[in-house]
Specification:
- The chain is an alpha+beta fold and about 80 residues long.
- It has a six-stranded antiparallel sheet, with helices on one face.
- It is globular and about 35 Å long.
- It starts with a strand and ends with a strand.
- The mean pLDDT is about 90.
- It holds the Pfam family GFRP.
Length: about 80
């Protein structure tokens, strides 16, 4: 079952939107305009795009992904999407 985790920090400007990790489908990430990014002191990489979450969610809906859940943790919003 293909799932994808989308998150962003709540702030005044839009983006960046964070999409999955280094094991996420690179073709999907290219379609979303996301680049693999490694932040210092992290032992993992993640994909990021400058698009706001609304644009990313719209693109994923076109591909058949649906939001399964959404939550806020501190100043971060997280969406879990699934594709049948």
């Amino acid at each position: 079952m293909p799932h994808i985790l989308v998150s962003t920090r709540i702030r005044l400007e839009s983006g960046p939107t964070i999409l999955g990790d280094e094991q996420t489908d690179p073709e999907l990430m290219a379609y979303l305009g996301a680049q693999l990014f490694h932040e210092k002191c992290n032992n993992y990489s993640e994909y990021r795009t400058d698009d706001c979450v609304r644009i990313v969610l719209d693109k994923l809906e076109i591909l058949g992904y649906r939001v399964m859940s959404m939550t806020g943790i501190g100043q971060t919003c997280i969406w879990l999407l699934h594709k049948d």
